Amino acid sequence: GQVRYSVPEEAKAGTVVGRLAQDLGLEAGDAEWRRLRLVSQGRGSSVEVSGASGALVVSSRLDREELCGKSAPCALRLEVLVERPLRVFHVELEVTDINDNAPIFPAARKNLSIAEFNTLPGSRFPLEGASDADVGANAQLSYTLSTSEHFSLDQQGNSDQSASLALILTKPLDRETMPVHRLVLTASDGGRPSLTGTMELVISVLDANDNAPQFNQSVYKVKILEGSEPGTLLTRVSATDLDEGINSDIIYLFGRHVTQELKKMFTIDEKNGEIKLQGILDYEEIGTYEIPVEARDKGTPPLSGHCKVVLEVLDVNDNAPEVWVTSLSVPVPEDASVGTVVALLSVSDRDSGSNGRVRCAVWPSSPFGLESRFAGSYSLVLREALDRERVSEYEVEVRAEDGGSPSLRGRRGVRVAVSDVNDNAPSFLQAVYTVLARENNAAGAELARVWARDPDEAGNGRVSYSLWEGGVGVGAAASSASSSSSSWSGWRAASSYVSVDAESGRVWALQALDYEEVQVLQFEVRAVDAGDPPLVGNATVQVFVVDENDNAPSVLPPSVGGAWGGSVPEASPEESSSESLWAWAWWGAPAGQVVAKIRAVDADSGYNAWLRYEVWEPRGKGPFRVGLYSGEVTTARALEEADGPRQKLVIVVRDHGEPSRSATATLSVSLVEGGEAAASSGSGSSLSGVRPSSVSEGVVSASTNVWLVVAICAVSSLF
Questions:
Q1: Contact status, residue 289 vs residue 310, Cβ threshold 8 Å
Q2: How far is Cα 201 from Cα 153, in angstroms, rounded to an integer?
Q3: d(CA 359, CA 497)
Q4: 415 lies in a domain?
Q5: Which of 284, 314, 344 is a domain's end point?
Q6: What is the pLDDT of residues 314-326, one digit of tens each?
Q7: Parent domain of 147
Q8: Rounded Cα distance, 313 and 478, in Å
Q9: Alpha helices in 417-562 (DSSP H)
């Protein structure tokens, strides 16, 4: 809607024009909080909004004549803005006229020359009327002439300033009786109280030439298009003089009160009365010209006739529409709602009629649109949701086109920046990161790097990383030729093994990893942006510890109640160890007879834990041999008394790692008679030639080797 007020001109500063906040529907006290204010409109700067009361008050002198000239009514269009939310209202303020200007004549004195006797009663002498800057009744003028027996005043037409005014001779003049007549012409306006202006008429009585030139019409009306070429013929005025001889020779010239601007714009030929265009006509500056023309004879004294040329300038479509941005609210947050006002625009065209009717559009047509508030005022509003990550800035062009033929166009570019809101959570390139790390790595070594992308900007897109959750079961995990079980002694958080750099996302090892302690370390990395509220993304990191051959084989002691025995001194995992074992065999035992079984384990896994057995001493072909992977010591041939009462074997146990690690076992085999061995076995002694469980142990050993091969293949496939 539109609020209308009126205020008389010359109202004092501080005069309340209207209760603007109340008329706009604002609550009491909201005017200052919502920043109720006027958008400067040039002519509307004489009024302002009172911040506390929200009233529209006069701030400086209001002069209707200065603001609007002769236009009536004098209406000022104001734009009023309120915020929270942003809204625009339109206020029309009419400045009413008061009678503060008196009529003014063009000159304080006018000289006229009138011939005696030859000038007949009823002769008319045109006078230029007064002007009044006011409008309406305050500008309606009436004229009176001081008392005279020879002259009277004739006023034709309305009482406005365009009325025709003439001095009428009522009685022949006699120069000898009164050579000079002095009269006072008074103009009074229609105001209350009325104001007046005066002009003195000094009339000199002349002799002789008693016929003035007479035009064939008193007013010539001409129409011409603006922008016509200089030199264009406008019209030809013509006058006749009833005198003869030199008193009838006529010259044409502009009236005495023609301004210099008119003389620069038009020319008149003294001989034939042709009036031509000399300057450039602009309808938007002046639409109508009134040119007084005088026809003067060459008599003594010369007599003159007068007419008026009224020139109407016709509008052509020579002005393109103009678009102005009166208010711009940028940047626009990307979560702004549809309908948000982004800018206020003013559109105008100086042409008139269809040439001045303007239609507007916005390009591109999305995501913004135009809404018309009232004639010449538009709002640029949001029509679609914004996404800064897709488009961070828009170059919007408002295009205006008038209704002329051909039409003219104007445009105005508006740059609309979109501000970021935290609407995107960090996103990792992978949901799961798989990392292979060799055991015994150095503390502080970089294991991996994770990276999350956040398309937001500034703090909303600044990502920091942290170790969120995860861990591993910790204990002694051992695999051997006879067992693949693991024992766990507790749970440890992943933060005791690794850390994540908050800025780069690098994953660092806090300590050396031990495959025998930890095979798989799984934890979650969290990426958090710096928005408000912050958004979070997660990724899972799986660190598979790769085994290295850092443990030497270890020979196990014999089982309780076994057929052989020995001592097992402890040794470092990195060094070869030597074990002392003993066993018994009888003379005459056939080839392939199991004498003993060497059992060893390796804390590593895969190839690093795959063990093989070799007889290191004695070299060459001896009476005993050892199974390559079973560790069983068997007779290579039938034992004889020549082999002596005791055989000493040095057996080397090696793994398949690179480089290979080994351990040695010394086996002492005592050769006894068959009966003695049997007696020892029957008495329950632990010194027996052959272990009763040798066959079953061979089966277990074979089964263990099969599982060992399967484990090696599985680890290889994983790598």
A1: yes
A2: 12
A3: 71
A4: no
A5: 314
A6: 999 988 999 999 9
A7: 109-206
A8: 110
A9: none
